[in-house]
Every structure is written in structure tokens, then in C-alpha cells.
């Protein structure tokens, strides 16, 4: 007893570690081990607390509705485990402890707090934090293992600071609120939601090297370091923003990117060299036929000797090039310089799935056009040895953004029609093994499949339901 009264030093918590039961990248259970030591007094108490993190800034800063918080971060209470030593008795200066935390809901990070006491009443606390633990199993990974690529265009341009670009306008409202693309929790949430419903690749909108683009800086400094991305739980590829990189010699109504312009040739080669150095070496960069995939947005506006520039570039840096030359009104064999394009691009697709916004009759005939044109292009490209990549959009409406056309005819969100479009497009997966969704999170043009206040998770759930059906029919 005399020793107890003179012992004022707290016990030491050491050799802390934890392991997990993981299914398809989702952690369901955590197993904790640690020891408590004291140099004078026997250990008398040990406790572990498992505390879900709360992200109040989504409400206070991003404007998420309080009633939406539990939809985004599933509710889960704090847990406390009062432990007994591994040998069953508090009778030594050093004791070993184990704790099992079962049925973790996920969709957030967690604090693990250990509290230790000795018989003199001295207390020590140890605290650590888990990485983001998924809410959903990685269904996208399951598809990828079967050779099926479900990609979605992704943007890192949203800001919640003084430059806040959400003020430019949008129709549907993000369930997350007006978030920042540089928030790692936002990124992990996007990856969790996307891969949990079958999307296994993000095509990252790329506007140039980090020193020239704040969006690329967010991509490199934040997105690539978000836990689920860094852990390889989603593939990435580059969506090359031609309009942001190449000199446009066209007009306000007709883009022209002339590869006979030395400026364009030099920029293009430098960009490829940059991507090769920064991204193609990443283990989670998407490769098709062992070559890094790049989607060239607005490639239909390429003119001049682009075929020669691509050929020379591919000899130095092999890459799998996807063009965007598929259009609704022109036959495949009638597109500008068709043979040059087919020799340049390994694959072809249509941006926003053949949608045209300035035709009043287009909404009613859209699905028929999709059926006819996709079949026409698939058959033609297959005979030419070029991969046909079908595209899918949930909706399109840019009337609400400051730079959008107010006179357009929108494609409204409609769950039944979205399901119909999926069933038009998914049969091609048997042959092409790839579909691109435009987009995951372009809120300005309302092409988002990311959950909104208005539709919540319904579009993602429809996508997943059809993908499950596709697997069963394989």
C-alpha cells in the first residue's frame, strides 16, 4: 500500500496494433491487441472506446441539410469495452489485452481510445484513428476481376472557399452539400459510393500539369492521397481536356485544334511526357491491352497531322487512345478524315452518349437514336478493329449554370428512362467489356450520378441492380 501512495507515474500503453476481417475491401470487424505496463504498481483497469467520427463541417460549411447527414454518414453509436487481461486476472505489472469490435457500419473514420489504470489510481490514455472505413463492399472490384470496366467522368474543380464556384449555378443539389474537391472525406465518400455500386474507374478531367492547373494540383496532392484511392480501391485514367490544353483556331461555334500548329504539337508531347512520369506508373492507373488509357475529349475537332503526332508519340510512350468522334447525325464512314481517325484511335466513344440539347424533338426520339446509332457504330468499328465504347448519361441540363444555354431542351432525370438507357447499352458489355458514364459529378450540366437531394441513391441503385443481373446472365 505504501508503494501505491508514492506511485504517481501512469502506466504505459504499448505494442498497440489492430487487424481486420475484410470482405471486398470493406472492414467488418476489428481485432485490437495491446499491452499495459507499470514499473511499480499492478494494472487494475483497461477500457477501449470505439468512436465514430463526426463531420460537422458538411453542415456548417458545405450547407448539407441536417436531415441528410445520416443518409451520408450512417448513424452508429460510440462503443465502450471494459476488458479483462488475456490471462484472466489483474495480477501483474504487465498485462496483455484483446478487444473485438464487430459489425462495423462504415462510411467514416473512427477513433480508438484506450484507457489504462494502475492500482494507485494513475491513468493513461492512448488514442489513434482508423483510415476511412467503407460503407459498401467494393462491387466495382468484383466486376473488374471479371474484366468489366464501368468508368465515370470525374471532376476535381469544386471549391468551398472565397472563390466558391458553386455560385455559378446548378439544377440538382448534391446530397453532400456544396463541397470542396480538396476534402479527403468527400473523395473517400465518392469512391465508396461509386465502387459500392459498380463503378470501378474514374476518368479524371485533366487541364494540364499541376503548376498550370489548380484542378490538377487537387488531383495530385489530395485525390491521389485519399485513403481509398491510395489503397488502390478504384482505377483512374485521364480525360484529356483538349480545349484547356490546345490552341483553338476555330470559332465560338466550331472548335479546331490544328496539329500542324507547332504550339499544339509541343504541348501535346509535353503533356504525354508529364502523364507518363506522374500517372502511368501508378498501380491503379487503368490499362487496356497493357497500355495506359487516355480519353481525348473533343478529338472530333483535331485537324492537321494529328495521326502522325499520335503515331510518333505512341512509339515513345505507348498508350491506348480513345477518341470522341461518335456523333448522332453522321454515318461512321462519313466523319471527317475517317481513315486517319481510325488509325489514330484504339477506341471511340461519344461524349454524353449522343445527347443533343438544341433539338426540340430530340428528347422523345433519343432512345431510338441510341439504339440505331450505337448498333451502327459498333458494327462499323468492329470491322475496322477499333473498340466501340458505349456511353451512358443520367440526365443533361445546363440551363442553370451561368455559361449554359437557356434555350436548350434538357434531358430530365427520370428513373424509368435511365433504366431503359442502361438496358439499351449494357448488351454491348458482352463484347466491349467497358461502359463510360458521363458523369459522376458534373453538377453544372446536371449529368451527375452522384447522389442528390432530389434522387438520393436511386440512380446508383438502378445501375447496381442491372450490373448484378448482367453478372448472373454471364
From TrEMBL:
It is found in: Golgi apparatus membrane. Its main location: Golgi. It is a single-pass type II membrane protein. GO terms for molecular function: alpha-mannosidase activity. The keyword Calcium does not apply. The keyword Phosphoprotein does not apply. Transmembrane segments: none annotated. InterPro entries: Glyco_Hydrolase_99 (IPR026071). Keywords: Golgi apparatus, Hydrolase, Membrane, Signal-anchor, Transmembrane, Transmembrane helix. PANTHER family: ENDO-ALPHA-1,2-MANNOSIDASE, RE57134P. This is Glycoside hydrolase family 42 N-terminal domain-containing protein. It comes from Pyrobaculum aerophilum. The lineage of its organism: Archaea, Thermoproteota, Thermoprotei, Thermoproteales, Thermoproteaceae.
Amino acid at each position: 500500500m505504501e508503494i501505491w501512495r508514492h506511485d504517481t507515474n501512469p502506466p504505459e500503453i504499448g505494442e498497440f496494433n489492430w487487424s481486420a476481417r475484410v470482405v471486398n475491401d470493406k472492414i467488418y470487424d476489428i481485432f485490437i491487441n495491446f499491452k499495459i505496463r507499470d514499473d511499480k504498481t499492478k494494472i487494475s483497469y483497461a477500457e477501449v472506446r470505439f468512436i465514430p467520427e463526426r463531420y460537422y463541417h458538411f453542415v456548417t460549411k458545405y450547407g448539407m441539410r441536417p436531415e441528410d447527414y445520416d443518409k451520408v454518414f450512417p448513424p452508429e453509436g460510440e462503443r465502450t469495452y471494459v476488458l479483462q487481461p488475456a490471462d484472466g486476472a489483474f495480477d501483474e505489472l504487465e498485462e496483455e489485452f484483446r478487444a473485438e469490435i464487430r459489425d462495423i457500419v462504415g462510411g467514416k473514420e473512427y477513433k480508438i481510445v484506450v484507457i489504462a489504470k494502475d492500482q494507485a489510481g494513475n491513468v493513461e490514455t492512448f488514442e489513434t484513428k482508423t483510415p476511412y472505413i467503407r460503407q459498401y463492399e467494393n462491387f466495382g472490384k468484383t466486376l473488374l476481376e471479371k474484366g468489366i470496366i464501368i468508368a465515370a467522368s470525374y471532376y476535381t474543380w469544386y471549391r468551398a472557399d472565397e472563390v466558391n464556384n458553386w455560385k455559378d449555378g446548378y439544377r440538382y443539389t448534391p446530397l453532400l452539400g456544396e463541397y470542396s474537391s480538396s476534402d479527403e472525406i468527400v473523395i473517400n465518400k465518392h469512391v465508396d459510393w461509386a465502387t459500392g455500386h459498380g463503378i470501378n474507374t474514374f476518368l479524371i478531367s485533366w487541364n494540364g500539369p499541376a503548376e498550370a492547373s489548380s484542378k490538377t494540383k487537387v488531383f495530385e496532392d489530395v485525390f491521389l492521397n485519399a485513403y481509398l484511392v491510395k489503397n488502390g480501391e478504384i482505377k483512374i485514367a485521364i480525360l484529356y481536356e483538349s480545349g484547356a490544353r490546345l490552341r483553338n483556331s476555330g470559332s465560338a461555334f466550331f472548335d479546331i485544334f490544328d496539329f500542324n500548329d507547332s504550339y499544339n504539337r509541343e504541348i501535346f508531347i509535353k503533356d504525354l511526357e508529364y502523364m507518363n512520369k506522374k500517372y502511368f506508373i501508378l498501380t491503379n492507373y487503368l490499362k487496356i491491352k497493357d497500355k495506359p488509357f487516355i480519353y481525348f475529349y473533343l478529338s472530333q475537332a483535331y485537324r492537321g497531322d494529328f495521326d502522325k503526332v499520335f503515331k510518333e508519340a505512341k512509339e515513345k510512350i505507348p498508350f491506348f487512345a480513345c477518341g470522341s468522334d461518335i456523333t448522332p447525325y453522321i454515318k461512321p464512314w462519313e466523319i471527317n478524315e475517317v481513315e486517319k481517325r481510325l488509325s489514330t484511335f484504339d477506341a471511340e466513344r461519344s461524349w454524353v452518349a449522343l445527347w443533343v440539347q438544341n433539338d426540340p424533338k430530340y428528347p422523345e426520339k433519343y432512345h431510338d437514336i441510341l439504339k440505331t446509332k450505337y448498333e451502327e457504330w459498333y458494327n462499323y468499328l468492329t470491322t475496322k478493329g477499333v473498340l466501340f465504347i458505349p456511353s451512358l448519361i443520367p440526365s443533361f441540363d445546363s440551363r442553370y449554370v451561368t455559361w449554359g444555354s437557356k434555350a436548350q431542351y434538357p434531358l430530365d432525370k427520370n428513373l424509368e428512362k435511365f433504366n431503359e438507357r442502361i438496358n439499351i447499352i449494357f448488351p454491348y458489355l458482352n463484347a466491349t467489356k467497358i461502359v463510360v458514364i458521363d458523369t459522376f459529378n458534373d453538377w453544372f450540366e446536371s449529368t451527375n450520378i452522384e447522389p442528390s437531394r432530389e434522387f438520393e441513391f436511386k440512380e446508383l441503385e438502378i445501375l447496381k441492380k442491372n450490373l448484378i443481373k448482367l453478372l448472373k446472365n454471364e
